[in-house]
Amino acid sequence: MIVTQRLYLLLVAGIAIAAGVAGILDPEIRLIESLKITFGFDFAVLVIAFLDARHVKSRRVEVTRQQLSRLSINRDNPVNLIVKVPEKIKENTIVTISDSYPPSFDSSQKILSTSINSSINFKDELNRTQELTYTVRPFSRGEFSWGDIQVRQLGAWGLAWHQWKVSAPQKVAVYPDLLALRSLSIKLTLQSTGAMRNKKRFGLGTEFSELREYATGDDPRLIDWKATARRNRPLIRVLEPEQEQTLIILLDRGRLMTQKVQSINRFDYGLNATLCLALAGLNRGDRVGVGVFDRQMHTWIPPERGQNQLAKLIERLTPIQPEMIESDYVNAVTTVANQQSRRALVVVITDIIDGTASSELLSALGRLRSRYLPFCIALRDPQVDTIANATSSNLESAYTRSVALDLISQRQVAFI
To answer: Residue 50 pLDDT > 90, yes or no?
Structure first.
């Protein structure tokens, strides 16, 4: 039993009542009688509060947690709690619920509350059920455990809470950003079905798509003069990027990818980018393969087509964590050259600090240029940009800003 503020007020009121009664009594018995009145009144109030809490015990609500699906890292994932009101409840009452989510998660609400109205038609099964929702935001991948649900229900007289625990252990896996993949998948599907306007990027591809009439603003270099002569009006060639090609994504999981940016390590940002890029390639009909490397090639998934490849990538890449070891870029590109003989676009997702530390990366990318099309994606900390662009108000902030500017300058030199 947990007492309420109303009970404390009644206990204090017992003292006030005793003091008022004692004022009209004989001074010789005033103290004894006031104590008797106080103890008697407070004892009666406590007995009523105990009965109030005990009365709730036979009228408990039923609280369950809906089965949780896979959670997405660094996203607000909804968690639903179902409150079922028994038919025995004939009065208004309040229920508070505290769910035991993993302590490393952020939550939108630590305590959820709902009010049960006695005017509800409890014979209706739908009206007897209420759904409470809160969100959790995980900052790391892996398997996490939910604990029990703590429930408090207020008594009919509002003097005490009845508290109990609902056993609801559950293990839930945190995956990469699946919500972003779902959103991207919907967008790509709409584009492919024509439900969304597909903006063609003229002149940026190599495959001929169609002929269309010249419009103001079009590049004159795209005019097809033979077709123009036949039709007697200017026509341009629409070029699209090549499809059904091979895409290789190399994801660094070495020391540089262990640093955190906004509570998430760089590797998780790289993993999310890898899956989104793979989804876009698979949607275009490309063959997509992924390699995760540090000192050696940790995981190699050969290029394949089809949506089954995306499911394979998610399952095999999700358990991988970054390690505090130096990455060997030369060994990574050598492995790609041995595994993939056909020409391909090779995307390396890593981080770049300065020209000296990244010289091996630049040298490795140079080795790929003879047969492949290398492309590097470097992760950048927005907090460094914020500090570099902030106004210095004191000496300490000036030093901090100078360090941020130096980091940005060194990265720019490395890209040259």
So the answer is: no
Q: Give the span between the Cα atoms of 148 and 354, in whole angstroms.
A: 49
In angstroms, the first-to-last Cα distance of the chain is: 70
Mean pLDDT over each residue of the chain, to the nearest integer: 83
One DSSP character per residue, 59-123 reads TPPEEEEPPP-PEETTS-EEEEEEEE--TT--S-EEEEEEE---TTSEES-SSEEEEE-TTS-TT
Q: Which fold has domain 62-175?
A: Immunoglobulin-like (2.60.40)
CATH class of 246-379: alpha beta
Q: What is the pLDDT of residues 155-167, one digit of tens each?
A: 877 888 888 999 9
Q: pTM to 2 decimals?
A: 0.74
Q: Which residues contact 373 (CB under 8 A, 6 or more apart)?
A: 343, 344, 345, 346
Bridge partners, 349 (sequence order):
251, 377
Residues in the chain: 416
Checking DSSP bridges between strand 373-378 and strand 345-350, what pairing results, if any? parallel
Across 41-60, average pLDDT: 80
Amino acid in position 365: L
> Domain limits of the chain?
2-57, 62-175, 202-240, 246-379
| Predicted local distance difference test score (pLDDT) of residue 127 | 61
Name every residue whose Cβ is closer than 8 Å to that of residue 201 and which is 6 or more positions away in sequence. 240, 241
